[in-house]
Amino acid sequence: MEPIILIPIILPFLLGIAGTKILFKGEKIKTFYVISAVTINLLALIGILNIEGAKAFHLLKINPFLDIYFKIDKLGILFALLASILWIFTTFYSLAYMKHEGKEERFFVFFILTLGITLGIAFSGNLFTLYIFYELLTLATFPLVIHAGTKEALYSGRKYLIYSLGGATVALLGMILLFSISNSLNFVEGGVLGTVNIDNPKLLLTIYMVMFLGFGVKAAIVPFHSWLPAAMVAPTPVSSLLHAVAVVKSGIFVLVRVCYFVFGAETIRQIHGNIYTSVLVFITILLGSLLALHQENLKKRLAYSTISQLGYIVLGIILLNENALIGGLLHLVNHAVIKITLFFCVGAIYFMTHKKNINEIKGIGKQMPVTMTCFSIASISLIGIPPTNGFVSKWYLALGGLTENKIIFPIILLLSAFLTAAYLLPIVVTAFFHGEEKKDIKKLDPPIKMLVPIILLTGITIFLGLFPNVLLHYIKSIVENLV
Amino acid sequence: MTYAKNFPLLMILILFISAFIMPLMKKNIFVKGLSLFTMGISMILSIYTWIFITKNGAYFYRVGHWDAPWGIEFKIGMIEAIMAMLFTMVATLILWYSVYSVEKEVKDNKVSFYYLLVNILLGSLLGMVFSNDLFNCFVFIEVTTLASCGIIVVKDKKENIAATLKYLILSSLGSGLVLMGIAFLYDITGNLNMTYIHKEIMNVHAVYKNTLHIAAGLCTVGIGIKSAMFPLHVWLPDAHSSAPASSSAILSALVLKAPILLLIKILYGVFGFEIIREFAILNLILILGTMGMIMGSVLAIKQKEIKRVIAYSSVAQVGYIFFGIGLGNKLGLTMAIFHIIGHAVTKSALFLAAGAMIEKSGKKKLSELKGIGKEMPYTLGLFTIGALSMVGIPILPGFISKWYLSLASIDAGEFMLIGAILMSSLLNALYYFPIIVNGYFGEENLAGKIYKSNEKSIKELLPLMMLIIGMIAIGAGSNKIMDMIRIGLI
């Protein structure tokens, strides 16, 4: 029964390939096919999670290293469910949105493929398998990034490829060195290095830093962040899903795996890896926010905001204590939901009015009241004001910082929250309060397929803020065994 | 099964003898058929040989029942059997591909001549693989040089003649150096048979240290020219890019590799692990290999023609092989041989795919080949898989080589060189991806192109597909292949 766990990973591959024929058969078939593809996959995923029994499977084991191995664990389930559910929202949104971008068939083929790859990342049982899917993710999302096919898109796409492949190669260097020490890259709670004596902390630190920086490229850690704003040239569903969820969160997810399942918190403390990395993370949080202040283009502003927020999550990971990791993982989920909402709103504005910049959207709140209300709520959540979910995760992050007895962590969090307000609230203010009073205001809220995902996601934002307990307990149960 | 012992010689003889029947045939179709048939027979014989070796182990074969020091001797072990299988299989697929397209690049009246040369070339390559006699190997080197000159110049264009002359001169220099190296060895040991030379060297190496050094150096540099070791590669881009597609594939996949195998035999067989490790020559090979890995790729980035890009990429890939040889440990050597196998299959597929694109579109510059992915989606798709292996996407053979070469360099204590390996794989990405990206994507690039308007038929693409499938199989079965190579090395 074990191979059954591969279904949610392989199914999107098959559906994507079949899609190259089926998607071209007409509008209705396409809509039906895409929606059913992602829904069936979610159902398959849930079905598999409910099956009792062994949840690990060696697809191809050549030797201790070349071992394609899948294992379902709680962290993987969290990531897989997050991705699958957000994928469904994005599917509905893009069915409407992609009409004006053209080449929808190609878009959906890679869109479905990417779902499978993301789930592959979630369920990888060792670093090698993870690395395969990590590389595949780059390759499969590349066509999505350069969807428009313009010179600018191709340029950004090249940047994206070079950064991602470069990062992966650097990470590979770390993997090689680590393998030569530990002879195993399997994910074990508490780290594979537990049994290995640390007789060369310098080498181990180098390996840790190399892997952190290599995989950190996808998590947009400064100074490897500049591909993310450049990739905003992609269509909005891509920016929202990939650059708020699938790609960047995969980077984060890999960092969690590396820190807690390969090295182990104890080892990292011994080699002082957390100290060196925390400097980078500080810079990431602050620089992301500061740069976001300058952006006129709405999507770019959100992209820099993503960089800063990803810094929070990484901070939660590298503080190496329970509260911080809870905060980090909570923020992984919360930020995904918030940022996808923000992007969807911005995309809706572009879809309806073809406006991209902040100074163009004066008074748009009156034309698109529902959209901009959702945008406002999501903004408030990202700043971290209760009763939204952003508050909950930041609370735990601050607690984590205090557990480390370093007051600087909460201060940075507060400073960055202030900056977040400084770059998001002006958008809200411009949209609702600027611009001339018009008598006959044309209602411009987007079509139902786009509006419903936005509203539902905003609902989730508030729901997770008011009732965070289910998620919190789940994450606590993950974290218990790790720190 | 003892008759199976004759198969290696039989392969060479079949190829040589059938070659000279070809000019007598009137119709090209028969020539092609004969060539493909003999190659297929050789392939089957080589598979039998391999099975025989797996069951019974390595053996020596006396040609013409003359005993070893006097007569020529073949040594057929696991590595030789694998190489023979690789050479004949790849050659069969390339010939199969060429059957459909050779007339587009080679004039009708030259076709029989072309296949004659290919058969002779393959025969002598196999000879070089099997032979345990240094002078015999030298003869085969010369035959390969002349035959490969033939299959380059057969296109009868100006650039081909220039490239061939360059190749001829440098290759002759190379084989001259090898001959000198052999002369030194003969002088010291009084033997030409590798096994006997090795025995003698073990006795006298303390006395003739410098002479042995010189002999090893001469052989390395001579073979380095033949197999495009980095600063000696200057002939390769011209020759490989101007030749017909099937010739390029044979040249880069097979003709480069047989001399490297000979070098391995000389360094590790004739001199032996213990002696060669004390020589500085391994460091030289290591350094040149590393430089080749980097510089081959750097030069490839600057090229404007697709076939030149692939040709320079060969320089880089051969660099990996020399790198493995130069590390001077078992794992490095194993990976060098593994990379010979992986690269032979991958590079021939890349050359054939590029050849198909050039043939169908009539353009060979990268800038003109933009948007080709829409016209020839399958061909470029196969090209992409090959390129991904070069870049080092896991499970494909390129990745396996890189991974184990890195581990081997850790074993050898050369941590810094891992950086060079990874750097080179990134550089690979820099010149392969633009071809693919511009081929499939980009509004401007695709404008005016019609989907599948120029695609080759499935029948013609079949050999290409089989090469790619073979490549994936090599990656997936890498562990078994490496085990077999290890058996051969002991």
Oligomer: heterodimer
Spatial ordering of strands, largest sheet of chain B: 1-2
Order of helices and strands of chain A: HHEEHHHHHHHHHHHHHHHHH
Share in β-strands of chain B: under 5%
Morphology call of chain A:
globular
Mean pLDDT of chain A: 86
Percent helix of chain A, as a range, is: over 70%
**Number of separate strands of chain A:** 2
Output the structural class of chain A: mainly alpha
Show unreliable segments of chain A. none
SS-derived structural category of chain B: mainly alpha
Structural descriptors:
heterodimer, A: 483 residues, two-stranded antiparallel sheet, 74% helix, globular, B: 490 residues, mainly alpha, 21 helices
Question: How would you characterize this protein structure?
Answer:
- The complex is a heterodimer of chains A (483) and B (490).
- By secondary structure, chain A is mostly helical.
- Chain A has a domain at 279-483.
- Chain A is built from 19 helices and two strands.
- Chain A has helices at 7-22, 27-50, 74-97, 104-123, 127-145, 151-182, 201-216, 227-230, 236-263, 265-271, 273-294, 298-318, 322-353, 364-367, 369-383, 389-403, 408-433, 448-466, 469-480, and strands at 56-61, 67-71.
- Chain A has a two-stranded antiparallel sheet.
- The model of chain A has no long low-confidence stretch (mean pLDDT 86).
- With 490 residues, chain B is mostly helical.
- Chain B has a domain at 282-490.
- Chain B is 78% helix and 2% strand.
- Chain B has a two-stranded antiparallel ribbon with strand order 1-2.
- Chain B is globular and about 70 Å long.
